[in-house]
Amino acid sequence: ALARRFFGRLRMAFYSGAGMPVTTWNRLVAVCAKVRQEPLWLTTSWGSTETAPAAAFVNWHLEGPGVIGLPLPGVELKFVPVNGDSGSKLEIRVRGANVFPGYRHDPVATAAAFDDEGYYCIGDAGHLAMPYHYCWCDGTANATLFGLRERTARV
């Protein structure tokens, strides 16, 4: 009864701040399938405090979690090999009017946060599987150091 009351008239659910685990996604889909005629639209965005707060947004129905979406208008994403590795793992960098100009009273940290083309080095990384498809790591371009899992996503 509670699930029907909660999910019955809900048209969309938005999550952000961290990737949704596959188990959570699958549970939401399963519960909604029992109490709704149509699937619940789950959507997300990607960014950080420094990107005020989003750089990409998903505006279509997803088949699973891990999607970061397409860049918002005026936002540019750049993909750079992690640690000069010629493999498929790429660091995501972001540039646009929504990106903060730097750390207050800290020119050293500001210089370290941006590359020579003015892209903010946000710290997320992954790989491009094919045009507009992208895998990402949880919050760091140095996944080996932190032992983080990679998640499949589409840009």
Question: Can you describe this structure in just a few lines?
Answer:
The protein is an alpha+beta fold.
Please provide a written account of the structure:
With 155 residues, this protein is an alpha+beta fold. The chain is 20% helix and 31% strand. It contains four helices and nine strands. The chain has helices at 2-7, 22-35, 107-113, 143-146; strands spanning 12-15, 41-46, 56-57, 70-71, 76-81, 89-95, 120-130, 133-137, 150-154. The protein has a five-stranded antiparallel β-sheet with strand order 5-6-7-8-9, with no helix packed on it. A four-stranded mixed β-sheet has the order 1-2-3-4, with no helix packed on it. The longest helix is centred in the N-terminal third of the chain and has 14 residues, at 22-35. The protein is elongated and about 55 Å long. Residues 142-155 have low confidence and may be disordered.
